[in-house]
C-alpha cells in the first residue's frame, strides 16, 4: 500500500483512529486551527462588528473584513467588495435568483441548467421562473457523466439570460470546463453562475480568470464552519442589484419617507453577520492554502483512482462518473439498496453517504432512487479506501 501522501489526520480532533470518514462532500471535518479560531473569537476577542466605537469592536471589524479580503484573494476576486458573506451556497444562489434574475428576467426568457445540478441550483431558478414567466432548459450529460457542453451550445439561444452549473458534481465528481461554459454563455449574452461547493475544497479557483459572473460556495465543505458561505459577483452586477433582506447594516440612510442602501457587499448583509463564522472560514482557507490545492487535488485523485480500481474489480458494483472525477465516487451494487450498503459499511467504521444527494433529476436519469457515495478530504489515506473496498466486498458476500 502507498504511504499516506498527506499527513494531516492528526490535525482533525473529531476523527478517531480507525474511522474512515468518506462523507466530505456532505460536510468536511474541521482542523484544530479552525476549532481554535472559533474558540478564540468567542472566548477571547468577541464583540460585534461595524457599530462599536470601542477598541474591541473595532478590532473585530478589522478581523471580519480581513476574512473577506482573504476569501477574495483565495478565489481571485478583484476586490473584497465583490465578496458577499451568506449562510452558504444555497443562500448565495437564492440571493442571485431573487435580486439579479428576479429583476432581469422577462416572460419568454430562459435559464440553462444541467441534469446533474444539486437541488439548490434548481429550485431557486424554478421559483424565479414561475414568478417572471421565464422557462428552464436542462443540458444533458455525456456518457461518462460530464455536462455535455456541445449539446448545451446547440441549445443556447439569445433568450437565455443565465446559465447556472456546478463546477464539480456532488454525485459524479465530474469537473466542468468553466472557461468553455463561460464562453458559450457569453456568446448568447447570458451570465454564468457557477456552484463551486465541491470545487473550492478540491481545485484551485480563479473566478474572474475563469470567466464566471457569479460564484458561490459553502464554508463547511471547505473545512470551515457551517452557517457561512460566499457569493462572489462581478462588481457591475452586484452594483445593479437591489437589496435582498432589509434591516440594519445594509443601509446608507433611513427615514420613514425613504431609505437608501449601502453599496455592495454591505447592501446584501442585513443584520448582525456570522462574525465568528467568517473568522473560522479565514482559518480554514489558511489551512487549505498552506497544503495547496494542487496538492489536495493530486491527493484526492490518487484516492479516487484507488477506489475506482478496487470497487470496479467487484463484479456487482456499478461505478458512476468519469475516471478523473474530483474526490467523489458514486456507486451502486446490483440488488442492494444504497442505505443497506451505508449501514453495513458503518459496522466496519466506514462512513459514506447513501441517498439521492439532493440530485433527484440525476437519479431519475440514472434510473435509480439513490446511490452510495464515497467522498474524500485531506485527512483520508489509502487505508480508508482499502477499508471501503473491503467493506463493499463484505456487503456483496452478505447479499450473496
Ligand atoms: N451545491 C452542491 C454541488 C452541493 O454539493 C451542495 C451541498 N451538498 C450545495 C450546493 C448546497 O450547499 P449548502 O447546503 O451548504 O448550502
Automatic annotation (TrEMBL):
GO molecular function list: cysteine desulfurase activity; pyridoxal phosphate binding
Limits of the Aminotransferase class V domain: 21-388
InterPro entries (alphabetical): Aminotrans_V_dom (IPR000192), Cys_dSase_SufS (IPR010970), PyrdxlP-dep_Trfase (IPR015424), PyrdxlP-dep_Trfase_major (IPR015421), PyrdxlP-dep_Trfase_small (IPR015422)
Pfam families: Aminotran_5
Cofactor (UniProt): pyridoxal 5'-phosphate
Record bears the keyword ATP-binding: no
BP GO annotations: cysteine metabolic process
Protein family (similarity comment): Belongs to the class-V pyridoxal-phosphate-dependent aminotransferase family. Csd subfamily.
PANTHER family reported for this sequence: CYSTEINE DESULFURASE, CYSTEINE DESULFURASE 1, CHLOROPLASTIC
Protein's name in the database: cysteine desulfurase
UniProt source species: Sphingomonas metalli
Amino acid at each position: 500500500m502507498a504511504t499516506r501522501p498527506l499527513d494531516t489526520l492528526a490535525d482533525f480532533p473529531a476523527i478517531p483512529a480507525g474511522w474512515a470518514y468518506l462523507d466530505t462532500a456532505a460536510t468536511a471535518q474541521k482542523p484544530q486551527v479552525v476549532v481554535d479560531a472559533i474558540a478564540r473569537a468567542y472566548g477571547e476577542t468577541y464583540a460585534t462588528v461595524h457599530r462599536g466605537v470601542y477598541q474591541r469592536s473595532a478590532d473585530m471589524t478589522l478581523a471580519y473584513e480581513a476574512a473577506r479580503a482573504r476569501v477574495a484573494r483565495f478565489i481571485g476576486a478583484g476586490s473584497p467588495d465583490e465578496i458577499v458573506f451568506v449562510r452558504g451556497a444555497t443562500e448565495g444562489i437564492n440571493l442571485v435568483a431573487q435580486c439579479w434574475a428576479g429583476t432581469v428576467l422577462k416572460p419568454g426568457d430562459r435559464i440553462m441548467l444541467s441534469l446533474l445540478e444539486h437541488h439548490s441550483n434548481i429550485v431557486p431558478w424554478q421559483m424565479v421562473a414561475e414568478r417572471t414567466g421565464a422557462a428552464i432548459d436542462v443540458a444533458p450529460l455525456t456518457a461518462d457523466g460530464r455536462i455535455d457542453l456541445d449539446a448545451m451550445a446547440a441549445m443556447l439561444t439569445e433568450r437565455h439570460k443565465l446559465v447556472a452549473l456546478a463546477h464539480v458534481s456532488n454525485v459524479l465528481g465530474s469537473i466542468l470546463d468553466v472557461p468553455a461554459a463561460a464562453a458559450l454563455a457569453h456568446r448568447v449574452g447570458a451570465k454564468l453562475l457557477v456552484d463551486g461547493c465541491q470545487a473550492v475544497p478540491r481545485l484551485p479557483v480563479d473566478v474572474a480568470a475563469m470567466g464566471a459572473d457569479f460564484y458561490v460556495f459553502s464554508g463547511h465543505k471547505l473545512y470551515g464552519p457551517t452557517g457561512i458561505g460566499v457569493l462572489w459577483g462581478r462588481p457591475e452586477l452586484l452594483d445593479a442589484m437591489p437589496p435582498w433582506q432589509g434591516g440594519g447594516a445594509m443601509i446608507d440612510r433611513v427615514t420613514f419617507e425613504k431609505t437608501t442602501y449601502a453599496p455592495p457587499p454591505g447592501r446584501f448583509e442585513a443584520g448582525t453577520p456570522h462574525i465568528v463564522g467568517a473568522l473560522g472560514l479565514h482559518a480554514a482557507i489558511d489551512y487549505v492554502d498552506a497544503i495547496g490545492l494542487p496538492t489536495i487535488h493530486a491527493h484526492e485523485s490518487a484516492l479516487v483512482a484507488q477506489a475506482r480500481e478496487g470497487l470496479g474489480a467487484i463484479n456487482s458494483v456499478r461505478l458512476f462518473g468519469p475516471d478523473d472525477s474530483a474526490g467523489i465516487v458514486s456507486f451502486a451494487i446490483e440488488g442492494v439498496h444504497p442505505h443497506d450498503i451505508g449501514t453495513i459499511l458503518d459496522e466496519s467504521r466506514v462512513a459514506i453517504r447513501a441517498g439521492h444527494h439532493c440530485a433527484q433529476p440525476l437519479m431519475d436519469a440514472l434510473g435509480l432512487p439513490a446511490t452510495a457515495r464515497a467522498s474524500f478530504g485531506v485527512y483520508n489515506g489509502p487505508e480508508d479506501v482499502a477499508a471501503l473496498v473491503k467493506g463493499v466486498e463484505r456487503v456483496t458476500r452478505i447479499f450473496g
